[in-house]
Specification:
- It is a single chain.
- By secondary structure, the protein is α/β, with parallel strands linked by helices.
- Helix content is 34%, strand content 15%.
- A hairpin with a 7-residue loop joins β6 and β7.
- α5 crosses α6, α6 packs parallel to α7 and α12 crosses α13.
- One of its GO terms (biological process) is carbohydrate metabolic process.
- Pfam families: Glyco_hydro_17, X8.
- Keywords: Disulfide bond, Glycosidase, Hydrolase, Secreted, Signal.
- One of its GO terms (cellular component) is extracellular region.
Length: 453
């Protein structure tokens, strides 16, 4: 008999509570290659009005760092590729960098990570690659000297090109040509408990394989999934596949304990006429479903039960970026501070965008086949215990109490949640234990809530 204990499992309780505030695993990149950006104070107010818990800067802009003081928002600051030679060769240069870019603002401004260089390993400059770890060590030593070494981590950001193999995910391998440099880097990250930061972009994977089934796989939309032939695990989205390929590569080098951070991922809302994939619809689907996936705390097949800290690219469109039009169209917000499209980041409505997109036909949210009773019971507890939703119909004497099974009660509760908070795919996720159906599951006097098409 399912128990309507209304007591939230700890993971779901943490999720529910975090919806009311910023979410530590959801970050955003603040690129500044633009001539129309709002003042730092306005950007800080915008960030504080959202569920975004972290912001990544590509440099160390003092205006935005100061504007975020006392906000609690985590801040990643960066040393440029051009800074690496001096940071590597002269410890005093690293000390000066920390003295200029960290000490005036910390701890009021919550600086959590310094990234030394961006995609250096795949930049093609072997001299710069050889200087990367020495530069990171000098920055770390500079932090240690002012007792911040355990509070602010030091890392560097990589493109997916550091892998020479990623399909299937379990076969992920780093480029052998980078072997010695990566070993030194990973040893440093392990010693300092700093993250390996990576830039996975399903958008680019779709551009190289523009089939409809690939698009659904990249956008977290319903698809048949892909089975990893190496370990038999089923992947239902490209993001998990890319992240797990990196994890497998780390494991192959025996550094699986090094935590990962997704430094960049996103989808453009516009592009040139010859570009495949950019659109508001696709950008909204990718970023909205990505956030739902992170909020579910389901994790990936190789790293279940937790969400990798993920920084979405980007806060604003950057009108001065070179390249195809898509490069200038990754922004979640316009520079007039309005949303480019709504993916539910507003704190006033953190689980569903305003003006939910109504499906073309009436749909109901029900459990997927094969889901365990424990997972379904957790879904019941979450919906009925924390969301202000009336689960009376599945309590004894209610119209939907019979059949008295976990699956039946979960179906009613999960659908009620989906209909109440917004009929969007991310509200029928439930740690990937739910699916949408066009068949009305109502029976006898038990009527399932529905929305008009």
């Amino acid at each position: 008999m399912p128990t309507l204990s209304f007591l939230l499992p700890l993971s779901l309780l943490a999720t529910a509570l975090s919806f009311a505030d910023s979410q530590s695993f959801i970050g955003v990149n603040y690129g500044q290659v633009a001539d129309n950006l709002p003042p730092p104070e306005a950007t800080a107010r915008l960030l504080k009005s959202t569920a975004i818990g972290k912001v990544r800067l590509y440099g160390a802009d003092p205006g935005i760092i100061k504007a975020l003081a006392n906000s609690g928002i985590g801040i990643v600051i960066g040393a440029a590729n051009g800074d690496i030679p001096s940071l590597a060769s002269d410890p005093n240069s690293a000390t000066q960098w920390v003295n200029s870019n960290v000490l005036p603002y910390y701890p009021a401004s919550n600086i959590t990570l310094i990234t030394v260089g961006n995609e250096v390993m795949t930049f093609g400059d072997h001299g710069l690659i050889s200087q990367l770890v020495p530069a990171m060590k000098n920055v770390q030593n500079a932090l240690n000297s002012v007792s911040l070494g355990s509070k602010i981590k030091v890392s560097t950001v990589h493109s997916m090109a550091v892998l020479t193999q990623s399909d299937p995910p379990s076969s992920g391998l780093f480029d052998p040509a980078l072997g010695d440099s990566l070993k030194q880097l990973l040893a440093f990250l392990k010693e300092t408990k700093s993250p390996f930061t990576i830039n996975p972009y399903p958008f680019f994977a779709y551009q190289s394989d523009p089939r409809p089934e690939t698009l659904a796989f990249c956008l977290f939309q319903p698809n048949s999934g892909r089975v990893d032939k190496g370990n038999g695990k089923l992947y239902t989205n490209m993001f998990d596949a890319q992240v797990d390929a990196v994890h497998a590569a780390l494991s192959a080098m025996r550094f699986e304990e090094v935590e990962m951070v997704v430094a960049e991922t996103g989808w453009p809302s516009n592009g040139d006429s010859n570009e495949v994939g950019p659109s508001v619809e696709n950008a909204k689907a990718y970023n909205g479903n990505l956030i739902a996936h992170l909020r579910s705390l389901v994790g990936t097949p190789l790293m279940p039960g937790k969400s990798v800290d993920t920084y979405i690219f980007a806060l604003y469109n950057e009108d001065l970026k070179p390249g195809p039009a898509s490069e200038r169209a990754f922004g979640l917000y316009k520079t007039d501070l309005t949303m480019a499209y709504d993916i539910g980041l507003d704190k006033s409505s953190p689980t569903s965008p305003k003006g939910p997109v109504t499906p073309a036909a009436t749909q109901w949210c029900i459990p997927k086949g094969g889901v365990t009773d424990d997972q379904l019971q957790a879904n019941i507890d979450y919906v009925c215990g924390s969301q202000g939703i009336d689960c009376g119909p599945i309590q004894p004497g209610g119209a939907c109490y019979e059949p008295n099974t976990v699956a039946s009660h979960a179906a009613f509760a999960m659908n009620l949640y989906y209909q109440k908070v917004g009929r969007n795919p991310w509200n029928c996720d439930f740690s990937q234990s739910a699916t949408l159906t066009s068949q009305n599951p109502s029976y006898n006097s038990c009527v399932y809530a529905s929305g008009s098409p």
